[in-house]
Design brief:
alpha/beta, 10 helices, globular, binds adenosine-5'-triphosphate, binds magnesium ion
Length: about 260
């Protein structure tokens, strides 16, 4: 039998990210309702769930872009709602974030978009920045695109530039919001293997939001399905696929219905 990712990875027992009874509402709409989640050092957790259920909102809490109405989100023991500014800056330097829409700046070139985190967080010389950006663009199969601007790119290309930017500082904790959106099947699979490879080689801790079974099978050590604001099902990818729960089976068959 082929070894599954969960068999071959060594994970520490140290919890890096912990959601404790997180509640979040926008107006009268309750999005997260007593959400509990943990991610351990070196682990890749995949979050699945219907559209609009609060997956991106969950991720934004982990970097302090959103704060819970009640409950806490702890990253390496820091409460992300009350963390000191200097600690937040230091922590964010070690984090990468692939936004669902890429979040590229339209008036900057591709190269400058990817270079941004290096310019903001390091004092590297221009030649070194150039080298690192080119390397990350090559990693996502976007070599030679430095001078293009985001409006000239397809959705899938923007996604990959966003991925290069998320990874350019060689972060230890990475959040991927729908890394496969807009990619053709071949590039989609290569992105999955890239995420897996980085996790294995560099022991990166990550959360991946996806609705694709093909993605969880490659990248995830553990999967959770969020529904009605909290974790509805949890397990390894294999356990997930074998789960007999009707709602979970329906979701996996047609994730966005
Ligand atoms: N800043 C905000 N202000 C008001 N409502 C918001 C805000 N951010 C998210 N929401 C709402 O919270 C809910 C969850 O949004 P979220 O983007 O997390 O969904 P999602 O699970 O990521 O969906 P998708 O799979 O379509 O990306 C939605 O109803 C959305 O409209
Ligand atoms: Mg989303």
């Amino acid at each position: 039998m082929t070894a599954q990712p969960s068999d071959v990875r060594t994970q520490s027992s140290e919890v890096v990210i912990r959601y404790e009874q997180v509640c979040k509402r926008f107006g009268s709409k309750v999005v997260l309702h007593d959400l509990d989640l943990t991610v351990r050092r070196g682990e890749t957790l995949a979050i699945m769930g219907p559209s609009g259920i609060g997956k991106s909102v969950t991720l934004r809490h982990a970097v302090g872009l959103l704060h819970p109405d009640s409950g806490r989100v702890l990253v390496e023991g820091h409460d992300m709602a009350t963390i000191e500014r200097d600690d937040l800056i230091a922590l964010r330097r070690r984090m990468g974030y692939l936004f669902q829409d890429g979040a590229l700046i339209n008036w900057l070139s591709v190269g400058e978009n990817v270079a941004l985190p290096l310019r903001e967080n390091t004092a590297l010389p221009e030649s070194e920045i150039r080298e690192r950006v080119e390397a990350k663009l090559a990693l996502v199969q976007m070599h030679g695109t430095w001078d293009l601007r985001p409006p000239e790119l397809s959705g899938g290309m923007r996604k990959r530039v966003g991925l290069a930017r998320a990874l350019v500082t060689d972060p230890e904790i990475v959040f991927y919001d729908e890394p496969n959106t807009g990619l053709d099947p071949e590039i989609s699979m290569s992105v999955n293997h890239l995420i897996r490879d980085l996790a294995e080689r560099l022991s990166i801790t990550s959360i991946v939001i996806t609705h694709l079974v093909s993605c969880i099978l490659v990248v995830a050590d553990r999967v959770v399905l969020i529904d009605q604001g909290r974790v509805f099902a949890e397990g390894t990818p294999e356990e997930f696929l074998e789960n007999e729960n009707e709602r979970l089976k329906r979701f996996l068959a047609k994730p966005y219905d």
